[in-house]
Amino acid sequence: xxxxxxxxxxxxxxxxxxLSGKGGVGKSTISTxxxxxxxxxxxxxxxxxxxxxxxSIPRMFRVQDNDVHQCDSGWVPVFxxxxxxxxxxxxxxxLEKPDDAVVWRGPKKNALIKQFVADVAWGDMDxxxxxxxxxTSDEHISTVEALRPYKxxxxxxxxxxxxxxxxxxxxxxxxxxxxxxxxxxxxxNMSGFxxxxxxxxxxxxxxxxxxxxxxxxxxxxxxxxxxxxxxxxSLEEGRDFIQxxxxxxxxxxxxxxxxxxxxxxxxxxx
Amino acid sequence: xxxxxxxxxxxxxxxxxxxxxxKQKPIExxxxxxxxASGKGGVGKSTTAVxxxLALAANDSTKEVGLLDADIYGPSIPKxxxxxxxxxxxxxKLMRPLKNYGIACMSxxxxxxxTAPVVWRxxxxxxxxxxxxxxxxxxxxxxxxxxxxxxxxxxxxxxSQNIPIAGAVIISTPQDxxxxxxxxxxxxxxxxxxxxxxxxxxxxxxxxxKCKHETHIFGAxxxxxxAKTLGLDILGDIPLHVNIRETCDxxxxxxxxxxxxxxxxxxxxxxxxxVRRLPVPPA
Lengths: 270, 283
Prior knowledge:
CATH architecture of chain B: 3-Layer(aba) Sandwich
CATH topology of chain B: Rossmann fold
Shape of chain A: globular
CATH topology of chain A: Rossmann fold
GO molecular function, one term (chain A): ATP-dependent FeS chaperone activity
Subcellular location (chain A): Cytoplasm, Cytoskeleton, Cilium axoneme; Cytoplasm, Cytoskeleton, Microtubule organizing center, Centrosome, Centriole
Protein name (chain A): NUBP2 factor
Structural class of chain A: alpha/beta
GO biological process, one term (chain A): iron-sulfur cluster assembly
Pfam family, one (chain A): ParA
Strand order of the largest sheet of chain A: 5-6-2-7-1-8-9-12
Oligomer: heterodimer
């Protein structure tokens, strides 16, 4: 019978999901930056990318051409560098060509997600971040079901400030409630753009929607992350934003989010 | 002989494999279907779909245009078109689309509570999409614009297998991760034999309203390069203007509320390019 203590996730101390409901709000970006920030605090981190149609994670670490190898306990996750402090698993590594489209219906997606949860030899790590696609569909249902025995820490919900995003994230909050997933907090991403030339701030995608949603729903607000071209650029190039751009506008916000996660886990678990 | 037996076997195999697949049938009254897709979420499909539908009508007032929001999980069209409420049923038990600015609209958003998530597996989604396609009294439409959800899964497959599509338009922002997904989106349409009319580059450049300095927040020219690689045309370029998002948030899309703006002009041009590339509509 099934024993979580003997499974591939036995050595993972905390599992957290990054959800949204809305597409393109920065789930993968936040997952990546959170992993980098936690690494800089000395933690070992993994990212499980369950976005089967649009796997963005490998590219954000510039390891999209890497292959996945097998070992006795299953698949070996891809390490980002020699340090082996960040490891990744994504369908992106399993495709013949990185541009191959995955046009699958639900049951096939579910089967792969179950494998990703059970058959990846993560080893010992402090945090496993699960990056999800937009929506509340097969991938989400299967992921939450598959992770349930391992008691995930909870979910971070990412939104942009505008009304259509907040609407979708409000639905995602209901999804979390229905599935018994604790909400660690809401991140308001792409919150304002400061012109590099004259420092005027334009709220391209509006402002405050995420914060208001958090207040309305009674969940913690983890912070606003501004639109930062240096952040977009460092992701395109697979660079370590946290290390290389500490003075950039998004840095403080991202570091603060990571700190709140760390603070949340340093308390003795109930 | 083994030759004809081989042929008979091949035909039997094709027959078995296609059992259970929906038969492709046009929607009654709808002349041409144009789908807007991306692969990537959050690149502006709904914003563009709404403005393109309005632009098609604005460019030619004799055309009747409908808008179908196929994003079951995150339906944005009701908010953007300032429409609310459950659809009425016709005597034939079809759903009557809600209309605003002259565009007939249907969305999952009209069928569920605003705060209720749709937590469904693929099979239920297929049946919902079928209802949104077939159980709506569209009337006589020249164009039905379908706003697809992100991804390359059940909804996209169901729509392309169910109805003939005159053309697909793929929207992307200039970032690498968006382009990668756009490419997958294009490949998906190739697999299901839907012609791709071209790409639209969205959120291409931001101009500071104060000092007019231009910043390429999401990168530059990526969509042009992708178009070249895939041998597709760029139908248009839409800049990152605050008024596009503001007007959609308030349910007054820029094509109707600020028709003289650069943004509206960009959408009108793209609508024109779409019509140019569509086959001659059936009589």
